[in-house]
Sequence to fold (744 residues):
Amino acid sequence: MTRRRTHKPPRSEPAPPVAGCADTRAEWAIRAVFLALAVALVFVSRLTIVNDHDVFLHLRTGQWILENRTIPRTDPFSFSAQGRSWDDHEWLFQVFTYLASRAGGLAAVGIARAAILTLALFLLYRLCLLRRAPPLLAAALTLYAAVGIWVFNEPRPYIVTPLGLALFGLALERLRSGARRWLWVPPAFMLLWVNMHAGFTAGCILLAIAFAGQIADNLRNRFFPVPSEENDRRDGSPALVWDCRARDAFLCGVLTFAAVLCNPYGWRILLFPFKLVQHDIFMNLILEWNPSVLGSDSALFYVLALVLGMRAMTIGRRARVADMLSLVVFTLMALSSRRHMSLFFFVLTPVAAEWFSAWARLDRFLSRGGLVRRCVEWAFLVGLAAWAVLPAMFSSSVFRVGLGYNTLVFPRRAADLVLEYGLQPRIFNGYNFGGYLIYRLYPQYRIFIDGRADVYGADITRTYADIYRAAPGWQNALDVLGINVVLADMPLSEGHCAIDALVEAPEWVLVYWDDKCALFVRDIPAHRKIVAERAFRRIHPLKTDAALANRWSTPQERAEGLRELERRAAEPEASLMVETNLSFLYGRRGEPQNALVEVEKFLKTVPDSQTMIYRRGQLREQTGADAAARADYLRALRINPNLSAALVRLGALAEKRKDWKEAARFYGRAYRARPMNPVGALRYANTLLRFESWMEAAGVLRDYLDLEPKDADAWEMLAYCYDRTSQPFRASEARTRAHAASAE
Fold:
């Protein structure tokens, strides 16, 4: 029996040159300098402040592991799930994160996060080069992917998954070219990955697709040979189904799977991804697990998926089967959950680089020109990086540059009060606050729920949802669980929730609130001190402006409510809702200067709030500062050109200056706004009468009267317009309607 020989790529043959690469040292230096600038911009873009509460859960867990010198097997942090099994598959990342924070605080954690993501993007760039994409195209698509995964920018375990995917893709590409020393890279990294994040399953999927795709490629090349430098054998014999590339992919997969089992939980770790998807309560509660929808954070994904899909339909048998399988599998994963978008970008960006480069013949185009053209091209790339990355940081109040954490997101003051007054140990908390409260309050206090949905299960999560939404029986649930403290987060949308119910419940007292949370305590002897010193009896945390004032039926209640707002405003933790309410109430009391002070406080935190800018214009107009008021109204219109209330006020200011043309212009814009401003329409008609535009004024009045049919004066004005245009029958009909409206 003769031994079947397999095809081996030559070891001494160098890898094929990347199309479009520079040949001279000068061109190489230019590319290196501009690429370093782009990498620096990407690194800076990842140095953003912490906004995720689960980051603090990982810090506290890492501290617990080092202090107890063991990995947690049951939940130590909550009272609702205490003693339940906990497979902490992220323990290694948590230890590294805590060690980094102990060495340099959150700054060190942020720098480490930026370094990991930048390294992942650099490996993605190298992978695009290996797929024969020109350097400029590879860098541009890498920046595209960097913007596409912008929302996954917190120092949480999922940042390891993009790095693993880029490294696995690089290793598989090297194995295809015969560099067998890369065979050990995926198993070695899997030893870390499997103990850091459940995204290791994406790496296993990638390896399985690579092996299946290689077998399919070999079958296709055997029965349907296509001339290709990559697939033809040197001796001209038919391609083998089982060659060295299929063998290496299989061996790499086996070794990697063996490495997956090197974790504290053994084979059970493979079941973790399936524990959550079987319950709809988790998928509905956690936003990042929801299906992808067309929006600002997913538009890049849809564009890339569409381009790849269109290109896949035109390349036929020449494409790798693994690439086609990756396109189908990872597109479906990204559509099923927003969290999987980062997987999509890191797997399919190199495929897009190769397909698009071959389709558009960019290798020929980008290889032309000399040093000047190289400088212009790479300078354009750096400008693209700055345009795509930096504005997202400086224009957002959430994702902005910094090495600390966002004080507008975390309930710092509420946690301080819990510790200061020694409240009862069982706390019902908002889902998003769990990680931060564990970091601040453990071990003195234990919370109700946090982001570890696998620990709490569907039963506890449903109980949380019922209490949070104030479903029937919510009070009984709190009594059964022995909960005397509630720290609720503000709802994202209007509707009945626990805060509404707790305000109306006589046994619960509001002792603190801000823009993100409300702290309630049960009125029991243990809470006598905090109730006596901090009770807010006249405040509803979700009501603002007139809705809050309407709760006060007597002058005494209004005075008490105002005193409570002023007491809350004197505390160190600022609140936009408090400042909004105080500015409104001061304005109603005829104290525009005090109202202006509160508006200025608000605008220091949110300088682009069109509502408060317009409000400041109103207050300045009341104090006689018409020029400053006009500037505020114009600024509000730059933010929202359809703010019809500002248009009406600008028209009124123009009338005060006897500038009737400008008044007509602003009133006309308020009339044409959708929805139409009735006050602006009526004033526009009055202004048109000054210019004797009778027909146009009649049309505006008819539109106004469709909204306000009982305005007798407007009917009289319409009759006057008909008289001036010789329409006596219509004028008589309008006067009849005016008399009827007056009688009503």
